[in-house]
Amino acid sequence: MNDALDVALRLLAVFVVFLTFPLIVGQTEHKVMAHMQGRLGPMYAGGFHGWAQLIADGVKFAQKEDVVPAGADRRVFQLAPAVALLPYLLVLLAIPIGPGEGAVGQVLDAGVFFVLAVMGVGVLGSLMAGWASANKFSLLGGLRTAAQLLAYELPMLLAAASVAMAAGTVSLPGILHAFHWWWLPWQIVGAIVFFVAGLAELQRPPFDMPVADSEIIFGAYTEYTGLRFALFLLAEYAGIVVLCGLTTVLFLGGWHGPWGADGLGWVWTLLKTALLAFVVIWLRVTYPRLREDQLQKLSWTLLVPLSLAQIALTGIVKVVIS
Amino acid sequence: MSPAAAATAAHATTAAAGNGHGFLSPTGVEIAFLLVGLVTLGAALVTVTTRQLVHAALWLVVALGGLAVEYLLLTAEFIAWVQVLIYVGSVVVLLLFGLMLTRAPIGRSPDADSGNRWAALVVAAAAAGALVWVVVDAFRTTWIDLDGPAAGTTRVTGQSLFQNWVLPFEALSVLLLAALVGAIVLSRKATAETTPDTPAAAGAPGDKEGAR
User: Fold this and answer.
1) Half-sphere exposure of A19 (CA within 13 A, CB side)
2) Given CB atoms, is A127 within the 8 Å cutoff of chain B?
3) Do A109 and B93 touch (CB under 8 A)?
């Protein structure tokens, strides 16, 4: 009974995080973008600085009619948002936010493999949406999504492999237990590659070619309305939370901080994750969209060689210090 | 391994793992294994029989994911996640990419059929029969002790891979490298041959090449 209660509490906690954190990132994005562009942003809903805007958006999405285009493949079309969203929920289960058994949904032996494998599945949702919509813009968006995933999956995996080599384990808490502060400069190239490749996998600007509004409307999600569209948006923001959390755990030392008492490790994890989420928003406001060929070129000619160099460096240092 | 030796080894394992196993009193894990196996088999059958091309690829996802769950139930965690990463995450995405690029109409594809279907069925049945026979013969009544130390963790897999199977592993990686180089050579040769044939249209592919 106690075990069952423990499992239920963990699942509930992860689910609450899954429901709240993406919304917090979304609200932050509203505000940060508004300030960076010297405008007000949504200011009316709820009174104080428009804090209730997201709730209003949610109500709006829930009220809209759920339209399935006549020519669409109904079942695939309706299933796609769930396929896009659920993997991020599963990944959140495995990310540790503090030391000890209590601060992670489920300790997995092959944690790094689990998170990268399951994150890759989320892209299937976009592909299904792009194909099933019976719309040429959607199909183009799906194609671009697939091309982008194929290009950026490799550097992401290689960068993560470098950390796993350094730590000698593929378990996420295990990597954090092995962490020292000098890993930061040692793995910095891998960290940047991982973060950039993750951004591309999430199709966030400047890698938002698959949903480029000026060319293909909204890519694979063009035909979606109401709650299903909201689920895709939620998947994007859940993806930001997952990517920032993973980068924190793999490269920035997770719960380790320069100071702080025992038991406050989770504060460090959350702080670093929030900082990275801020960077994600910042990049969106700052950089113009990459063209498709620039996008592919960046991955194959820059990120892949960099991550290979990082693995070589990791191997050399590992042999020297052991 | 000869059948006799396999039987002896299996007998030893059975003795070590306890004698409480039987087909008439299955445990929860065994029932789950069987059910997931049935789902996997069903998805695989739909994959090869459906007339809708993209549906076939999506059913393939179900079949491959079911296999990953089977690996998990057999405590081979590492293999399970690699299965998801490589097959569901990459191979199927590549497949869908190819389908979308060529021809993947919504609804039935009239030409999604082959005159070789009976030959394919025979080959598939023969391959499946051979595999099942080999596996059954090798393992007989071996039981995995689920309560003991996990037999398929990353550490165990890595140790057996890099201590006992280094040579096959390296040979395979060289083979894959050769395939990679071959693919690049083939694709480059194709563009070199087409460019001189169409001097009028040389501008467009040339620009494309430069942009890459």
Assistant:
1) 7
2) yes
3) no
pLDDT at B8: 43
Residue contact B77–A108, C-beta within 8 A:
yes
Determine the residue of chain A that is closest to B78 in CA distance. Answer: A110
Among A318, A308, A320, A316, residue whose Cα is nearest residue A166 = A318
Instruction: Note whether B154 contacts A132, CB cutoff 8 Å.
Output: no
Q: Which of B79, B85, B101, B184 to mutate to test the interface with A (most CBs of A within 10 A)?
A: B85
One DSSP character per residue, B154-173 reads HHHHHHHHHHTSHHHHHHHH
Do A285 and A131 form a contact (C-beta atoms < 8 A)? no
Q: What local confidence, expressed as pLDDT, does residue B211 receive? A: 39
Residue A301 confidence (pLDDT) above 80: yes
Q: Is B89–A72 a contact, with Cβ atoms under 8 angstroms apart?
A: no
- Region A102-131: mean pLDDT is 81
Residue A168 reports pLDDT greater than 50: yes
Of A220, A199, A224, nearest to A290 (Cα)? Answer: A199
Whether B77 has its CB under 8 Å from any CB of chain A: the answer is yes
Full DSSP string of B53-80? HHHHHHHHHHHHHHHHHHHHHTT-HHHH
CA B88, CA B91: separation in Å to the nearest integer? 6
Distance CA A37, CA A35 (A): 5
Of B58, B92, B154, the CB nearest to A76: B58
CATH topology of domain B3-149: Four Helix Bundle (Hemerythrin (Met), subunit A) (1.20.120)
Query: Mean pLDDT throughout B157-176?
Result: 89
pTM score, two decimals? 0.81
**Packing angle, helices B92-101 and B53-73, rounded to 10:** 180
Between CA B117 and CA B121 the distance in angstroms is 6
Establish if A121 touches chain B: CB-CB under 8 angstroms: yes
Q: Which two tokens stand for residue A157?
A: 């995996």
A152 CB neighbour count, 10 Å cutoff: 26
Q: pLDDT tens across B114-133, in order?
A: 778 888 889 989 999 999 99
Ordered by start, the domain boundaries in chain A are: 2-321
User: Which chain B residue has the Cα nearest residue A144?
Assistant: B97
Q: Which residue has the higher pLDDT, A50 or B70?
A: B70
Residue B205 has pLDDT above 80, yes or no: no
Contact with chain B for residue A14, Cβ under 8 A: no
